[in-house]
From TrEMBL:
UniProt xrefs under NCBIfam families: PNPH (TIGR01700), PNPH-PUNA-XAPA (TIGR01697), PRK08202.1 (NF006054)
E.C. number: 2.4.2.1
GO molecular function: purine-nucleoside phosphorylase activity
Protein name: purine-nucleoside phosphorylase
SUPFAM superfamilies assigned to the protein according to its UniProt record, in alphabetical order: Purine and uridine phosphorylases
Lineage, broadest ranks: Eukaryota, Sar, Stramenopiles, Oomycota, Peronosporomycetes
Length: 393
């Protein structure tokens, strides 16, 4: 065997050198068993697609295919020389691995426990069982002020709940009624650019699902890619382009939690067509149809705004608006089987190559949202009333 060959990991199962406190992986290169830090890295994918039992890893060592860094091994070494003596403490379980799948991953058990803790707290804190969940985008938190009999729960009071860090996101759940319809407003969402894992940004959707919602209304502030869109227009989302997701930054990566849905979730109809038509009907009723569009929302991670060339690319592949949120929430909602309606408030026009214009800013986004807040609040309220009336009693 060529000793200079690059190591190829064949064993995602960790073994332990009795003479050290580090985890080892066996390699087929004939070179050595490579030490890894313990506990291992957070969020890493499996080291190899095929896992080999620990006994097989030891067999590689015994047959001269691998050795510990401290010494070369030959056939004279017994199995006992490679394993801890019976008097030693048991090897601790490697925490980077799922107990169910054997995959290296980011702390699988904690998120499940965390969901239970949050869910238990909210079930004890409030008797509200909302039909509709509303996620308020940047500058759109005023939607919650329309609620009757509001019950405000601050994020900071909810154990193990994330905290909002972005201006325009208040950081509270507001339970209440809109014209007799039970709803919960999420005033302040979470973004991966704040440093949150993308799974954590979607945790509130699963919590609202456990509280009983059947519908999710997501709103956001977005830049207009479609040249026919104007600042102040409202785009009904009929599809999305998940740019981070195409590169693997996806909220459903990792072991599937069957409490919420199946392993592979189809997204063909993740934006409910009946709700899209309902939104159009409400716009006609309120004489807002001239400002209501339909289109594809492009999700980018941020926090930087897009370059002119990036905007050109997104437009070429069919994007009508671009923003830094919403899509992970929609994907998790689809996984939960919720009916989703997405609304994007166009708060600025993007700049394409060769164009002159004012660079986008968060202040511009908040100003545009403030200027149109009465229209969008009236519009959303009418949509919620229509959803409540059409829902089977």
């Amino acid at each position: 065997m060529n000793s200079d060959a690059a190591p190829v990991l064949v064993d995602a199962t960790f073994v332990k050198d009795s003479s050290s406190s580090v985890c080892m992986r066996a390699c087929t290169s004939g070179a050595e068993v490579h030490p890894l830090p313990h506990p291992p890295c957070i969020g890493a994918p499996p080291a190899a697609p095929t896992a080999v039992p620990s006994a097989a890893a030891v067999a590689l060592v015994l047959n001269g295919l691998a050795h510990f860094p401290t010494r070369r091994l030959d056939h004279s070494h017994s199995i006992d020389s490679l394993l801890p003596s019976r008097s030693q403490e048991p090897i601790p379980e490697c925490r980077c691995r799922s107990a169910t799948t054997g995959h290296a991953m980011f702390n699988e058990q904690a998120p499940r426990d965390r969901i239970d803790v949050i869910n238990d707290y909210l079930h004890e804190r409030t008797t509200a069982r909302p039909l509709i969940g509303i996620v308020c985008g940047s500058g759109l938190g005023g939607l919650s002020k329309c609620l009757q009999n509001p019950d405000v729960v601050k994020y900071e009071d909810i154990p193990q709940f994330p905290k909002s860090t972005v201006e325009g996101h208040a950081g509270e759940l507001v339970f209440g009624e809109l014209d007799g319809i039970q709803v919960v407003c999420m005033r302040g969402r979470f973004h991966s650019y704040e440093g949150y894992d993308i799974k954590e940004t979607t945790l509130p959707i699963r919590i609202m699902y456990l509280l009983g919602i059947k519908y999710l209304l997501v709103t956001n502030a977005a830049g207009g890619l479609n040249p026919d869109f104007n600042v102040g227009d409202i785009m009904v989302m009929n599809d999305h382009l998940n740019m981070p997701g195409l590169a693997g930054k996806h909220p459903l990566v990792g072991p599937n939690d069957a409490r919420f849905g199946e392993r592979f979730t189809p997204l063909v109809n993740c934006y409910d067509k009946k709700l899209q038509q309902l939104a159009t009907d409400c716009a006609e009723k309120l004489a807002l149809i001239h400002k209501v569009r339909k289109g594809v929302y492009c999700f980018v991670s941020g926090p930087t705004y897009e370059t002119p060339t990036e905007c050109k690319l997104l437009r070429l592949v069919g994007g009508d608006a671009v923003g830094m949120s919403t899509v992970p929430e929609v994907i998790v909602a689809a996984h939960c089987g919720l009916k989703v309606l997405g609304l994007s408030l166009i708060t600025n026009r993007v700049i394409f190559p060769g164009e002159e214009g004012i660079a986008p800013s968060h202040e511009e986004v908040l100003e545009a949202a403030e200027a149109t807040k009465h229209e969008i609040e009236t519009y959303v309220r009418d949509i919620i009333y229509a959803i409540g009336n059409q829902h089977p009693k």
